[in-house]
Design brief:
- A hairpin with a 4-residue loop joins β4 (101-103) and β5 (108-111).
- This protein is mainly beta.
- It has two helices and 26 strands.
- The protein has helices at 2-20, 114-122, and strands spanning 61-62, 67-68, 92-95, 101-103, 108-111, 129-132, 136-137, 143-144, 151-155, 166-168, 178-180, 189-198, 207-209, 217-227, 231-241, 243-248, 251-252, 255-256, 261-268, 271-276, 283-285, 291-294, 297-302, 312-314, 322-325, 330-335.
Length: 336
């Protein structure tokens, strides 16, 4: 009986030991308490986070408890210097000995006073486009456009800043402030752009020609003129483009107002507004049979024309002036 009791106690002791170790009655370890398997861990150094190189993994070192993976090898930083952006080059050439600024294209210049203006126009320098960099008053007349410049442009817009400036005529009755002489048979295109022109009594305007010059085309774009007479070129062709405003005063510096232009032909594109307080005609075309073509919008208000004159006067004894108003144009003319 004593042996039977000892055998039962031994069996009970072994069973309790198995359950303490997590074994079942059959001696196997249940799945829910099995030792977890450690998955391989891929680690990447911070310096490799933005690299195109894949991380490297060493062979795992094994212990009795789990597999442990060593950190990936560190990629050394690249010593190649970072490229620096190229410096922008200036678009303006430094001032020359005359003081005006030459533009990079070689044909333009920015002028700041009359001396620079005269040098830029008359000089043998290839400059055919002059921009104002300040308001300028013409100090004497007859700044001559040379025959070497077949085209010439005077602009009131500073090419560097975009600001607009004014030019004041020379108050002399001896031809225009800027002139194409009769010996010049080469200059045939003259342009005025983005410009305010202040008349000071000149009979011939800011740019004009001697009587012998024929066939010059004048292009007037975005110009505001106030004075005695805008232009004188009796064989020339006047083209208004863009938006232009012309005011002819009854008197300027004590001198009677004259025509808007003594010219050969006139073409209006864009918008042209004319206000004339003079007793003279608006357009005088007496050297050749003239023509007026309106292919835009023209508003003309001439309230003081002499009863012996007209809005447009042609050559004596010649046939009537050709007037052509296009179908999509507008012409509003008031004369009293």
């Amino acid at each position: 009986a004593i042996l039977i009791i000892l055998l039962i106690a031994l069996i009970i002791s072994m069973t309790v030991s198995d359950f303490a170790l997590g074994r079942g009655l059959d001696g196997e370890i249940p799945a829910e308490v099995a030792i977890p398997t450690v998955e391989p861990i891929y680690t990447q150094n911070v310096s490799e986070q933005h690299s195109d190189t894949a991380p490297t993994m060493k062979t795992p070192e094994t212990t009795d408890e789990a597999q442990v993976y060593v950190t990936a090898e560190t990629k050394q930083p690249d010593d190649t210097p970072t490229p620096q952006p190229a410096q922008a080059t200036a678009a303006i050439v430094p001032q020359n000995s005359s003081g005006y600024v030459e533009l990079e294209d070689g044909i333009g210049a920015i002028v700041y006073n009359f001396t620079q203006l005269k040098e830029a126009i008359e000089g043998n320098n290839g400059i055919t486009r002059v921009h104002l960099g300040a308001d300028i008053a013409i100090e004497r007349n007859r700044t001559v456009i040379p025959a070497s410049k077949t085209e010439f442009t005077l602009s009131g817009k500073n090419q560097q800043t975009g600001e607009r400036y004014a030019i004041s005529e020379y108050s002399s009755s001896d031809l225009a402030s800027i002139v194409v002489e009769s010996s010049n048979t080469k200059t045939r295109i003259v342009s005025l752009e983005d410009l305010d022109i202040i008349g000071r009594g000149s009979y011939y305007g800011v740019i004009g020609t001697e009587d012998g010059v024929r066939g010059i085309d004048y292009y007037v774009r975005n110009v505001i003129y106030t004075g005695r007479q805008f232009i004188y070129s009796i064989y020339g062709n006047l083209h208004f483009v863009g938006e232009n405003d012309i005011v002819i005063n009854a008197k300027t510096n004590g001198q009677d107002g004259q025509e808007v232009a003594e010219i050969g032909t006139v073409t209006v594109n864009g918008s042209l507004n004319i206000q004339s307080y003079a007793t003279y005609p608006v357009f005088k075309m007496t050297a050749t049979k003239g023509s007026l073509t309106i292919d835009g919008n023209m508003t003309l208000d001439a309230t003081n024309i002499s009863s012996s004159s007209a809005v447009i006067v042609g050559a004596s004894g010649d046939s009537a002036i050709d007037i052509d108003i296009q179908s999509d144009a507008n012409a509003n003319i008031t004369a009293t």
